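User: Okay, second chain of the day. Same drill as before: sequence in, structure tokens out.
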Amino acid sequence: MPGVNAGLSIDQSRTAIDVPLALQSATLDLTQFGFNASVDKGPWTWAVALVHGFGRVDSSRNTGLGIASAAYNAHIDGALTELSYFLNMDQSRIVPKAALEYVHAATGSFQEVGGLNPLMATGATVERSRILLGAEVGHYWIVDRKVFDLSAYGKFVDNVEQNFSSVTVSLGPQSITLQGIGESRYGADAGASASLSLSNTARLYMNYDGKFRAALQSHQGTVGFELKW
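Assistant: Same drill. Structure tokens below.
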């Protein structure tokens, strides 16, 4: 229908983690299924996205007398709804946005095998709800029938609810219980992107995304090529 869009997506990724000073490493293989939809009404846009993911974690630890390894499952569910207003000024734009996000993630328990003094740990769950308020600004140029677009965004983040379960780690008869650590209540997200549309079906892009919290900073960059048919 006019002004209504819907889409499905699937993503397969692998994350490698290496802690050389602790002689530990791990891999996370994650498969995610997503659904998104949006409704446009003049300058207003309401969008929603749903994600379900499941994966497997494989870890190894050098104990000095062999490798202790473990494998366990993980899953994640998320939902996001966003309302935005598009202000168009010739080839520039300002888009105020307000969003509500919910995420629930869990990892299974594990028992290491091999090495000296293998560990055992209970599963863990994380649940978070947050509000995001911000805006995107952008401008595009048309050069030789190609569209070059620059944009940047900033968001205020309020983690209104965070629940982290404790994890009990056991080594033989001894055990210790650790409480999960969450983000600070308030923070900010910021980023920028550059896109060059080579044709109606091909595009080059670069993205930067940063997260800034009281005791945490995260920086991520992406370079890609997109082909549509």
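The chain has a mean pLDDT of 93.

User: Thanks, on to the next one.
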